[in-house]
Design a protein that fits this description.
335 residues, alpha/beta, 5-stranded parallel β-sheet, globular
Length: 335
């Protein structure tokens, strides 16, 4: 393929760990706040609550001479709708590469290390979206290897299992079920817009051929199963220890969607805000440049079937041993 060598060079560059650049290392709260909330990374205007929360957490960390900490809540799995499932794919590489650069950017202004934790909950996805638990374990094992490759003493990545705060899986499931009952009772009274988003998300993530075989369900039964999945997802989001770790702690929450409070809505890679765990990474050529792009399963499968995305085999050096990176996806169309 024309320019394939340049494409390979671009993919190889995605493994480059951005070096920490010693900057002014100011102790001025305003300059640090500007770095943390910079429009270079942020995708939408922050609400007042999130602004105050972020500023307060920076000030406390600075006063105590502590690391500045961020949390990135995610499901801890790869969507089954991608060929790479259950393995990491190029979306994960692009996202971690991007967050590494964000961490380096913040470190230029902050005098102590930057820590970014990806939080998830183990042992529940079989209930939430019918996913075999071993598939989550496969993904997390690879993802941990990936973030280790982009970590050093000054910008550190880690995984955090919310379930570890409960002492046992039984305690997690007990709270999950209590949340489920409470949310199910409130479901009919929630705003339609909220319900539609939750149901659409559940439909995308519910694995039809997973722990249970749902392929033979009629439309009515499947709709009910999707609703159940949506309620479980909401119940998972409302786990007290999950919220405590991500929001109500010393950590500043980073999200790829608009709305959660308190948080900073940031991009997932150079050109996208789609979440990496339910996305695929493609390399897009715009004029004479190559760019990272993370796209949804719907767009990915649609464009792949139309021939707009080409699948190219990569060598071992480019895939770094990750099974889900055996192919890259290249698109030449311009937006």
């Amino acid at each position: 393929m024309e320019n394939f060598a340049r494409l390979e060079s671009f993919l190889a560059s995605q493994w480059k760990v951005a070096p920490v650049e010693e900057g002014a290392l100011d102790t001025n709260i305003d300059s640090i706040y500007r770095a943390v909330t910079s429009g270079k990374w942020r995708r939408s205007k922050m609400d007042r609550y999130s602004e105050n929360d972020t500023r307060e957490k920076i000030q406390v960390a600075l006063d105590l001479k502590n690391d500045i900490e961020f949390s990135v809540p995610f499901g801890g799995y790869k969507s089954y709708r991608f060929p790479s499932y259950p393995h990491v794919n190029w979306a994960d590489v692009f996202a971690v590469n991007h967050l590494r650069k964000y961490g380096v950017f913040v470190k230029r202004s902050y005098p102590y290390p930057v820590k970014i934790s990806f939080s998830y909950c183990s042992g529940v996805l079989n209930k939430v979206n019918n996913m075999p638990l071993q598939d989550q374990e496969t993904y997390l094992g690879e993802f941990e290897k990936l973030i280790d490759m982009f970590s050093d003493s000054q910008v550190q990545f880690s995984l955090y299992d919310v379930a570890s705060a409960y002492g046992s899986l039984g305690a997690v499931l007990d709270e999950l079920e209590k949340n489920y009952i409470r949310i199910e009772e409130q479901w009919a009274y929630m705003p339609n817009e909220h319900l539609e988003k939750r149901l659409a998300s559940a439909e995308r993530n519910l694995q039809i051929s997973g722990v249970e075989d749902l392929t033979s369900l009629n439309n009515s039964s499947l709709a009910e199963r999707i609703k159940r999945s949506a309620i479980y997802c909401e119940a998972l989001d409302n786990l007290k220890q999950r919220r405590s770790f991500n929001k109500f702690s010393s950590r500043i929450q980073l999200v790829n969607i608009r709305g959660p409070q308190p948080s900073i809505h940031i991009s997932s890679c150079e050109t996208s805000a789609n979440h990496f765990s339910v996305g695929e990474g493609v390399v897009e050529r715009r004029s004479n440049r190559y760019l990272q792009r993370i796209i949804t399963s719907r767009l990915f499968n649609s464009d792949l079937s139309k021939g707009k995305i080409k699948k190219l085999a990569t060598d071992r050096e480019l895939s770094k041993g990750f099974l889900g990176l055996k192919h890259c996806f290249y698109t030449a169309y311009e937006n």
